[in-house]
Amino acid sequence: MKWLLIAISVAATAAGEVLQALGMRHHGEIRDFRPGALGRALAVLARNRFVIGSVAAMAVSFFSFLKLLSIAELSFAVPATAITYVLETLLARYVLKEHVNWLRWAGASLVICGVILVSV
Amino acid sequence: MHPESARLRLKTWLCAVLVVLSNVAGNFFLKRGMTADLSSPLEYIAVLFRPWVAAGVLLLILWMLARMALLSWADLSYVLPVTAIGYVLVALEGVWFLGERITTRRWTGIALIVAGVALVGGATEPQTVPRSRA
Question: pTM of the prediction?
Answer without folding.
Answer: 0.89
